[in-house]
Specification:
Elements lengths: L16 E3 L1 H28 L8 H4 L5 H5 L7 E4 L12 E5 L4 E2 L3 H4 L4 E4 L1 H7 L1 H16 L9 H5 L20 H9 L8 H4 L19 H4 L5 H13 L6 H20 L18 H34 L1
Parallel strand pairs: 1-2
Antiparallel strand pairs: 2-5, 3-4, 3-5
Protein name: 3-methyladenine DNA glycosylase
Organism: Subtercola boreus
């Protein structure tokens, strides 16, 4: 399964979309309510000191504040009318514009009185050229490759291979099998991890068992859309692009990461039944089949979101 991307063609004149204040205010409010629901558990646990080894990953491994998820952006190429006098008018990476044509106000004295604003796409791209280029390249190349469904989540098992008791990564979670049985799963299966940020957590004894000896530099060469961690990372790339990405796309990326994380832990050697998650026993043929079927569904979702993020970049470049 692959997705084809094309470099954006720059039109002679970009035609922005303009949203009246009532329109974009409703979108903003709906976005905030959705974001609040998605982060409610994390925010509540921060008050009580509790931990959730599955869900907290989205806020610890990806160290982005819930407030970033809550902040709605229309995306590049959208003019928000009626922003004068609002905090949004002064947000970073926004500029006052003429709502009638979507053009940046040329008169500095008139900027303060401008009743509309839009994402400063050119300013953002100029300031973060290398980051944006890297993200677009990585997402495009990942989505264009055929997905692989033969890893079966064994990266999590390789992270605890031959570790001493009490030294597993998720100390709050017990293992489903004994240490010897867990090691045997690694030894009896092919390890085909293609994601560097999973591979780097392999134990020293497990690293040589992987078919690929991955590095950060080779990441763009090996990322493929069947990988659960590559799917979760679409959220990371979207949030790094800040105001260029429409709010609904960002929250869709976060929801995808949340859903993938649950499967990731269900298929792991850890027992997550205390958190309402039944194990996907990838040490069995039936478990492998269940895992691969879920991978296929996540591949479709993640590639659709890669396309949406790439389109957000391309839209910004057209302006």
């Amino acid at each position: 399964m692959s997705t084809t991307f094309a470099e954006p063609r720059l039109p002679a004149q970009f035609a922005p979309t303009t949203l009246e204040r009532a329109e974009w205010s409703a979108l903003e409010q709906a976005h905030q309510l959705r974001a609040d629901a998605l982060t409610a558990g994390w925010r509540a646990r921060r008050q009580t000191g509790e931990a959730h080894p599955v869900d907290d990953f989205l806020f610890t491994y990806y160290p982005y504040r819930p407030s970033l998820l809550r902040r709605w952006h229309p995306g590049a190429g959208v003019v928000l009318d009626g922003t004068a006098g609002l905090d949004r008018h002064e947000w970073r990476w926004y500029v006052p514009v003429d709502a009638a044509v979507g053009a940046r106000r040329a008169d500095a004295d008139a900027d303060a009185d401008a009743g509309a604003s839009a994402v400063d796409a050119r300013g953002f791209l100029d300031a973060k050229t290398s980051t944006v280029t890297f993200i677009r390249n990585l997402l495009e190349r990942t989505a264009s490759r055929a997905a692989r469904f033969s890893c079966f989540g064994l990266h999590e098992w390789a992270m605890v291979y031959r570790v001493a008791e009490g030294e597993v990564r998720h100390e709050a979670l017990p293992l489903r099998l004994t240490a010897a049985e867990t090691d045997a799963v690694v030894e009896q299966n092919r390890i085909t991890c293609s994601h560097f940020d999973a591979f780097r957590f392999f134990t020293p004894e497990a690293r040589p068992t992987n078919e690929l000896q991955l590095t950060r530099e080779s990441q763009p060469e090996h990322e493929q859309p069947g990988c659960l961690h590559a799917g979760m990372d679409v959220y990371k790339w979207a949030i790094k692009l800040g105001p260029l990405v429409p709010g609904e796309v960002l929250l869709d990326c976060f929801e995808l990461a949340r859903d993938i994380r649950q499967l990731d832990m269900q298929a792991s050697p850890y027992d997550v039944t205390a958190y309402g998650l039944e194990p996907v026993r990838i040490e069995s043929a039936e478990g492998k089949k269940t895992y691969a079927a879920a991978q296929r569904r996540f591949t479709e979702r993640s590639n659709a979101l890669r396309l949406a993020v790439v389109e957000a970049i391309d839209t910004a470049r057209r302006i």
